[in-house]
Amino acid sequence: MANPFHLAWFLQGSSAQAWGEEWTGHIGASWMVPELFVDLARTLERACFDYVLIEDSSYIGESYGASTAVYLENAIAVPRQDPSVIAALMTQRTSRIGIVPTFGTYSHHPYLLARLIASLDQISLGRIGWNAVTGSSDYAAMNYGLTGLPEHDTRYDMADEYMAAVRALWGSWEPGAVVDDKERGVFIDPGKVHHVNFEGKFYKTRGPLNAGPCPQGQPVIAQAGGSPRGRQFAARHADTIVAHAKGLGGMKAYRDDVRRHMIACGRNPGDCKVLFMVAPILGETEELAQEHKRRRAAHAAAQVKQRLAFFGKLISVDFSDFDLDRPICDIEITTNGHQLNLEQFKRIAGTRTLRETMADYNATGLSVELVGTPDAVAAQMGEAMEEVGGDGYLFSLPNVSRRVLAEIEDGLVPALQARGLVRKAYSFAQFRDNLLDF
Ligand SMILES: Cc1cc2nc3c(=O)[nH]c(=O)nc-3n(C[C@H](O)[C@H](O)[C@H](O)COP(=O)(O)O)c2cc1C
Fold it and tell me: Which of 283, 359, 363, 422 has the highest count of CB atoms within 10 angstroms of its CB?
């Protein structure tokens, strides 16, 4: 039997997400105290997921019509709490699953970031990852007093240096530095804690890190750069990559490319797990699953404006003036934001119009369409992974609710486990060890 594959979850921030969707109860009132998301982490831990990635973008959308209105009215990525808070809460109610908050290299000084992640790694006993993003919106940059973001590839040059600074800070504590020796009256061995004095072209930091050592030494790095420069960055630094790639051919090409880049920077390609986005639609029968798909599609068709606003925020494009009924291939669209998303969107759109494409619920980046009974979907997931060569999936569902989580935990995951496709128990206490287990 083939190796099992990995599962992770993409949580669209700590927010009133899925507001207005079915089965979300009182999310409009209860979002502030994020019990649903803590429940989500516990549920996914019972299902032996590798990690929960907590998305963040640090600003309220304003791309659509240069106004925040559509975002505020429809709860599109707003409100968003700081991901470190929900990450900390999740660590205290779980014991094995990895927790991966997102922080931007434009918004946090390397010392602040290194300290925050080290503290989270400590309180979780080695289960923290950092989703390292370079940002894609000038609005976000302006929230931090900048005039805008640097040019796309320069952001990755800066992020390479940023990583060096952060790693140096985490490395300022040698293993065994905390001796806790009451007899000698020594808590920390001063010979094992080092100054950093990092001075690069873009960043400067001193150290040593006052937070103390990370249980994982260097916490897990997650990344999602999709452009050629982004992939090079991810291949150099990441333990796991979350990817937009459409279709089995696209997924395989993406993974092969990452592995090639890893070899080029002297890394073992097995040391980074590339997970592809999916949003399974499940039903007790094939007909029920198809019915759920029809409902999802009808919902998307009724939300063209909101979906354009969401996608426009993601790629920093104002779609409000675009002719919805013109073929996308006839419209000039460019971005200094997420380039791969835009390219893929154009490819998926083909000769379709903006309205037609946005009404397609699956238009903005899922790898394989999964619709059916838990067993049928489990089989499809297994076949796709076999074709692609590994490493697993990132669930990204637009309608997060306890009902949807139960379908995954009690329906899909047991079906995957019965086929030997995913783990039935964690082998290790720490995040990276579980990630590299197979
Ligand atoms: C699954 C996934 C999750 C992402 N999460 C975030 C996020 O939370 N915050 C963010 O600013 N960017 C996020 N991104 C965007 C990436 O960091 C990256 O900018 C994007 O994939 C485009 O790649 P490029 O910048 O190399 O063109 C995510 C991308 C993907 C595919």
Answer: 422
| 8 A C-beta contact, residue 48 and residue 425 | yes
- Give the pLDDT of residue 109: 98
Confidence of residue 392 (pLDDT cuts 50, 70, 90): very high
Q: Determine how many CB atoms are found less than 10 A away from the CB of residue 264.
A: 11
Pocket test for ligand 1, best of 102, 103, 257, 343 (most atoms within 8 A of CB): 102
CA of 314 to the centre of ligand 1 (A): 8
> CA 408, CA 44: separation in Å to the nearest integer?
9
Q: Is the CB of 227 under 6 A from ligand 1?
A: yes
Is 303 in contact with 68 (CB distance < 8 Å)?
no
Residue 270 gets which letter from DSSP?
A: G
The atom number, within ligand 1, closest to the CA of 54 reads 8
Question: What pLDDT does 2 receive?
Answer: 65
From the alpha carbon of 135, which atom of ligand 1 is closest?
11
**101 touches ligand 1 (CB under 6 Å):** no
Q: Which of 181, 170, 172, 261 is nearest to 223 (CA)?
A: 261
CA distance 291 to 101: 34
Residue 179: DSSP 8-state: E
**For ligand 1, what atom is nearest to the CA of residue 228?**
26
Q: Is 224 in the pocket of ligand 1 (CB under 6 A)?
A: yes
Q: Is there a contact between 407 and 415 (Cβ–Cβ < 8 Å)?
A: no
> Distance of alpha carbon 152 from its chain centroid, rounded?
19
For the CA atoms of 357, 360, 366, 368, the dihedral, rounded to the nearest 10 degrees, stands at -120
Q: Which fold has domain 6-282+368-435?
A: TIM Barrel (3.20.20)
CA distance 306 to 137: 18
* Threshold 0.90, pTM exceeds: yes
Cα(338) to ligand 1 centroid in Å equals 7
pLDDT tens-digit map of 41-93: 999 999 999 999 999 999 999 999 999 999 999 999 999 999 999 999 999 99
What residue ranges do the domains of the chain occupy? 6-282+368-435, 286-358
Other CB atoms within a 10 A radius of the CB of residue 11 amount to: 30
Q: What digits encode the pLDDT tens for the residues 202-230?
A: 999 999 999 999 999 999 999 998 889 99
Q: Tell me which residue has its CA closest to atom 14 in ligand 1.
A: 224
| Contact yes or no for 312/345 (Cβ under 8 A) | no
Whole-angstrom distance, CA of residue 230 vs CA of residue 251 = 16
Residues 6+ apart with CB under 8 A from 29: none
